[in-house]
Amino acid sequence: MNPTLLIAWFDAHARQLPWREPGTTPWGVLVSEVMLQQTPVHRVTGVWSEWLARWPAPSSLAAETPGAAVRAWGKLGYPRRALRLHAAATTIAAQYDDVVPADVQALLALPGIGAYTARAVAAFGYGHRVPVVDTNVRRVVARAMHGRAGAGAPSTSRDLSDLDGMLPETQAARFCAALMELGAVVCTAGQPRCADCPVTGECAWVRAGRPATTGPGRPSQAFAGTDRQVRGLLLDVLRAAPDPVPRARLDAVWRDTAQRDRCLGSLLIDGLVEPTPDGRFALPGERAAAPRR
Q1: pTM for the full model?
Q2: Quick one: which H or E segment has residue 68?
């Protein structure tokens, strides 16, 4: 795959996203990468800007309660990510003089930071030449290099090896960003726009006649009526309340007692909710809020 063609396309067509703006710190990159996990870009941009305005450095987030992070997380979904960001910020502030580490291994040692996020921060936060592979990159590589419509089951060693062999010596991080962008807006899973692709002339999948995906399709994930929805409703009550809330306030959000109790129990286990000594419930770190009114 021609890096020059792809980077030139990215320079001309990349979406204007706030974390791509000049001057974005590695901390800003870390926050964006955690927020973007399993969440569409359009839902992240506003929340990311609010977080960076409120918490421009790891220490500013670490100084607040984990509950403040959960509250500010809003409707992004999968709120345990807010706890992971708070824990990572606390470690960065205490052990790295408030500077996000640049080394992949040091990043991997941070609480809740996985292989993808560590490499993304090293590449996009510091410009290091490391392969960064997400779902979009895997699909582009599967099509352009291997002639397959879909990437199939993930294989960390294979996926990283494929991309590592393609990385240019210069602008490697920009090349990774361009691959991600291509998969997100052109080489999409459902309706790829091959006529708009800058590397369609060298795409093995196009040359093979764009064969269909083999094997079972990816099942869609319902939301209505799931435990995810109920957990979200319970957290909504706590986010909206300045003080811990009584159990009755939580019981009112869902009629199915067994499901509601199961979801509240899972939130307690995950550390997203804490009981207070007087039997109420609060976001983590906020048990010592004002007494019952």
Answers
A1: 0.90
A2: helix 66-73
Place of tokens 């790891």: 58
Task: Render each residue's pLDDT in the chain as its tens digit; 293 residues.
Answer: 889 999 999 999 999 999 999 999 999 999 999 999 989 999 999 999 999 999 999 999 999 999 999 999 998 999 999 999 999 999 999 999 999 999 999 999 999 999 999 999 999 999 999 999 999 999 999 999 999 988 878 788 888 898 988 999 999 999 999 999 999 999 999 899 999 999 999 999 999 999 987 655 555 667 778 999 999 999 999 999 999 999 999 999 999 999 999 999 999 999 999 999 999 999 999 876 444 44
Distance of alpha carbon 217 from alpha carbon 229, whole angstroms? 24
The answer to whether residue 171 sits within a structural domain is: no
Q: Provide the domain limits for residue 237.
A: 227-282
* Tokens (6 digits) for 88: 């990572």
Task: Tell me if 244 is assigned to some domain.
Answer: yes
Decide if 274 is catalytic.
no
- Cα(194)–Cα(253) distance, integer angstroms: 47
Task: Select which of 21, 33, 64, 202 is catalytic.
Answer: 33
The answer to whether residue 266 is domain-embedded is: yes
263 is a domain residue:
yes
* Number of structural domains found in the chain: 1
